[in-house]
Amino acid sequence: MATNTNQAALEQEIKSLQSYAAEYSEQYGLLSEQLKFMEAAKAEARSSIEALEALVATEGEAAVLLPLGGGVTVKATLHDTKNTLVGIGAGVSVEKSTEEAIAFLKDRITEMDASGKRLTESLGKLSEQMRAVEQRMQEIYASVQQ
Q1: Chain segment 3-53, per-residue pLDDT in tens
Q2: CB-based contacts of 76: which residues, under 8 Å, 6+ apart?
Q3: Structural domain tally of the chain?
Q4: CB 3.0-4.6 Å disulfide test: which of 76, 80, 123, 141 passes with 66?
Q5: Domain region containing 56
Q6: Can you give the CATH number for the domain in which 65 is found?
Q7: Following DSSP, what letter does each residue of 40-93 receive, concatenated?
Q8: How many other C-beta atoms can be found within 10 angstroms of the C-beta atom of residue 65?
Q9: What count of other Cβ atoms lies within 10 Å of the Cβ of residue 60?
């Protein structure tokens, strides 16, 4: 009788562990995607900084290639290389000097680095939890097979 009760408890624990494993795996995937998105956003910000720094080096007007979409690009001339429009979130853009825009992007990269570090730490903790669940499941399977 005790064996049936023990077996039922082990089966319940396995179901619970499987549920935890699935949840941890899903969370891990979501956090990994966030980290990839953040890395892409940082690369885009660095690219924008390089372009803005090149504009600062020009005096007056600057010739640029302007992508219109659909693989179409036109030659254009920037008449004002001293000011830029910067998206600050929620679809809002503000005008800043090019130097201020560069500083803003560098600050944004710093914030993303900090967030990326937190995400990486969370991924590490999830990995530990996933290993612990897997180890416990292996212990249960080993004890059942004996």
Answers
A1: 677 888 888 888 999 999 999 999 999 999 999 999 999 999 999 999 999
A2: 63, 64, 65, 66
A3: 1
A4: 76
A5: 2-145
A6: 1.10.287.370
A7: HHHHHHHHHHHHHHHHHHS-S-EEEEEEEETTEEEEEEES--SEEEEEEETTEE
A8: 8
A9: 10
